[in-house]
Give the backbone structure.
Amino acid sequence: MPAVFLLLLLLPLISAQTFNWGPCPNPHVQDDFILQQYLGKWFEIEKLPTYFARGKCIEANYSLRKDGTIRVLNSQVINDELMSTEGTAVVKDVREPAKLGVSFSYFTPYSPYWVLTTDYTNVSVVYSCTDILRLFHVDYAWILARSPSPSPETVKKAKDLLISEGIKISGMKATDQSCNDV
């Protein structure tokens, strides 16, 4: 009986994720990534479903801390209330600066945050994957933009890149960016 109860509690989290069989893909990331140019505000345009970002007007703001880590401030509007979460990102290997790790708790390991491509001023395509015993994996993918409404061509190009890297995006959903000042 406790196992059934636990499963019922976890069902919303499981249903809000994108599971696929096999190990994580290994997509190519942005060559010559320049972190300083990436910092600042990004609007979430589309994403694969996640349990932690279900609101609207989702934004991420990245800034450099004195200790060299990156402050990640994510915000979203849920039930007309602005909610925010602060985390930390780090460059895991200076030879691959587009492969960052991000954590929103001292108790959790850094999760992948890979910048597949960015032009720094308009769009960014980000991917993350969690491998579960190489039997299946959980995909996360985001299309971010510096404005809340990039052109349809920009979004299509971002999706085409994800597909070309072997990332299944059929479950990708647009983020509602139409908020009044909350």
User: Anything to note?
Assistant: The domain at 17-174 is CATH 2.40.128.20 (Lipocalin).
